[in-house]
């Protein structure tokens, strides 16, 4: 690597779109409109490495607070791998998050390298996939009177807050109103007891986040979300990223006939945050947490 020809800087908004397109080529299947939401999480948190002006490496280092950050989108163009460009960008990202407890979802082949950088395994996330038609789901279930797309933003913000170790209201708000997305809640007389978002991806749809008090509620939300987004007669693939430590979530995915697509390791540089994983049936994003 020639340091003289290598520049690392913050991405422009259009370059975040580039990072998303690279993620698509890697087979990560990002959402069609993810970039705008990601920018709101931390406008300074996307870094790019350029050789003589050509983008060769990207990474996200989202600083949610002074205490917590998240690494993702770590991609080097294939012809530039093994030359030090990626590692230099990694060091810049970690320097930006200095002092934070840093989380990431590590693909299997990189987990040993992340351990060398001080990351420790907290649990595995499993991506499940299944092929569904909207017509498969009975939207007239006993929960349907409580499942709605109408909710007060303040109420959903309060409900979501415990599921993430830092405030990310701007990201969450954009995530649920992005194009080709649907957000539903279970709104009972006692308040919100479940919440989920489904969004169109380069291939099929992803559900995430998916939060619920129990498996019954989570499964009802999955059915209602698919009924909203997927064509009634044409089958499409739906993905759900499940914390393996939530066995109710694993059981639900299997009961829907979903199969394992791949796994990641949720890792942190410090102690794993205390989160209600038993109520977390789907992760919002492997890329930024």
- Terminal CA distance reads 31 Å
Tell me the Rg in angstroms: 19 Å
Tell me about the largest β-sheet. Answer: 13 strands, mixed
Question: What's the mean pLDDT score?
Answer: 92
Low-pLDDT sequence parts: none
Helix and strand run: EHHEEEHEHEEHHEEEHEHEE
- General shape: globular
Helical residue percent?
25-40%
Provide an overview of this structure.
The two termini are 31 Å apart. The protein has helices at residues 13-25, 34-41, 85-96, 111-116, 153-160, 169-177, 215-229, 247-255; strands at 6-10, 46-51, 54-63, 68-76, 101-107, 120-132, 147-148, 181-188, 191-200, 205-212, 236-243, 259-268, 280-282. The protein folds into two domains: 3-123, 3-Layer(aba) Sandwich (Aminopeptidase); 126-282, Aminopeptidase (3-Layer(aba) Sandwich). Strand 8 (181-188) and strand 9 (191-200) form a beta hairpin. The mean pLDDT is 92. The chain is an alpha+beta fold and 289 residues long. The longest helix has 15 residues, at 215-229.
SSE map:
Blueprint: E1 6-10, H1 13-25, H2 34-41, E2 46-51, E3 54-63, E4 68-76, H3 85-96, E5 101-107, H4 111-116, E6 120-132, E7 147-148, H5 153-160, H6 169-177, E8 181-188, E9 191-200, E10 205-212, H7 215-229, E11 236-243, H8 247-255, E12 259-268, E13 280-282
Parallel strand pairs: 4-5, 10-11
Antiparallel strand pairs: 1-2, 2-3, 3-4, 5-12, 6-11, 6-12, 7-8, 8-9, 9-10, 10-13
